[in-house]
């Protein structure tokens, strides 16, 4: 079965749908689809926690949007592959968004004889198709920490490559942590 295009969900400002009933016979969502995002923390996490990576680049969303987990994973793969080949242990990548929102699709058959196959809007809840992250305008999507100004230039270029995988307008913000003892500690969920 083909994946429904992201435009069907991305610009819709619908209600978040994350709850799953404990009683399977009474729930609309019988099964929660698997999360396609494999890792959330990549690179030299120890150096980041110790404050040895003071230069921080953040990829920020400029609009309120729903991003499918496939898009998040595609952007993460581009970032991971290019950062590992070009910076080799001098970076830390942190994926800041999580796909909790469950996507549904009310399939309706179109064409000749479709009136006997489709139920229309009767029982129109739809089947579960995937997961997505609901992102607000100004929310941080990815964070890359680097050790020097030269690695920041490379990381900024690689973040530009990851922008093409996301369905929203984004910008890159640069920050330098002056006090190395007070770097924010990432949540480890791998």
Quick rundown:
With 190 residues, this protein is an alpha+beta fold. It is built from four helices and eight strands.
Describe this structure in words.
By secondary structure, the chain is of the alpha+beta class. The protein has four helices and eight strands. It has helices at residues 7-10, 45-50, 69-86, 149-163; strands spanning 41-43, 55-61, 65-68, 91-95, 101-105, 127-135, 140-146, 170-176. Strands 1-4-7-2-8 form a five-stranded antiparallel beta sheet. The radius of gyration is 20 Å and the shape is elongated. The mean pLDDT is 83.
The low-confidence parts are none
Counted beta strands = 8
**Overall 3D shape:** elongated
Question: In the CATH scheme, what's the topology name of the domain at 33-103 and 126-178?
Answer: Aldehyde Oxidoreductase, domain 3
* Beginning-to-end CA distance, first to last residue: 29 Å
Task: Give the integer mean of the pLDDT values.
Answer: 83
DSSP helical segment count: 4
Beta strand %: 15-25%
